[in-house]
User: Which sequence fits this backbone?
């Protein structure tokens, strides 16, 4: 099976970003989160983290392995890919819930 | 539809959704009994910002007829917006439980205050301003960088 890496990266990136924002919106639409009802926070976290996972993977893989992008775009993708990954790591270490 | 039209439509849709969402919360004001308009408004606003950010990032990657530097700027601003929302996203949580954000436990008074305050879907007041200032600084840095070349 042949994948066109560039198109795949673009699809995953757009799906990831939309999932992230849908995750934030889900928390408010289903909310508020209370002690007895943690469902909004749980659903929101899963959607947000899935989206962020897609984004991080797309940015890093796109920056490192996709040769179709111009060199400055690739550099930017790698820098932001690492920055977003590091931010996620820090946010998850400081907060009990994402 | 060619790629350029998709990008233009995405930008228009994103910004329009954002302002429509803001109008909904002002026209149909929510109360502590009925929070539907607040939830609908927040959902539309955040989806609008999602469309906008996605379009900015895609505008910097896909092939279409646009200046190379402008394309780079679109990607840079899109990724910056995403990063800002990533950092700000915990502030957008509407959590009135005792554990709160997981940082410390809230008292019942604080819980009541948080319930009434509710995130505006843009985070804490002034979040928009912060976003705008960071974008302008990014733009200036980019211009300076370009001039040096």
Assistant:
């Amino acid at each position: 099976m042949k994948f066109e890496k560039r198109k795949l990266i673009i699809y995953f990136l757009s799906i990831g970003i939309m999932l992230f924002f849908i995750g934030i919106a889900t928390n408010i639409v289903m909310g508020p989160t209370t002690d007895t009802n943690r469902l909004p926070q749980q659903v929101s976290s899963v959607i947000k983290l899935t989206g962020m996972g897609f984004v991080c993977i797309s940015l890093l893989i796109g920056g490192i392995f996709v040769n179709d992008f111009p060199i400055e775009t690739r550099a930017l993708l790698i820098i932001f890919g690492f920055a977003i990954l590091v931010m996620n790591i820090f946010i998850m270490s400081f907060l009990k819930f994402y | 539809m060619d790629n350029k039209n998709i990008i233009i439509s995405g930008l228009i849709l994103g910004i329009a959704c954002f302002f429509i969402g803001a109008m909904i919360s002002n026209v149909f004001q929510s109360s502590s009994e009925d929070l539907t308009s607040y939830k609908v408004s927040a959902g539309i606003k955040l989806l609008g910002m999602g469309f906008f950010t996605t379009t900015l990032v895609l505008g910097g990657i896909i092939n279409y007829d646009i200046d190379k530097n402008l394309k780079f700027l679109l990607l840079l601003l899109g990724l910056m917006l995403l990063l800002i929302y990533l950092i700000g996203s915990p502030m957008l949580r509407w959590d009135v439980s005792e554990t709160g954000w997981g940082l410390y436990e809230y008292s019942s008074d604080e819980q009541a205050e948080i319930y009434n305050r509710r995130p505006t879907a843009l985070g804490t007041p002034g979040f928009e301003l912060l976003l705008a200032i960071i974008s302008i600084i990014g733009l200036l840095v980019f211009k300076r960088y370009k001039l040096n070349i």
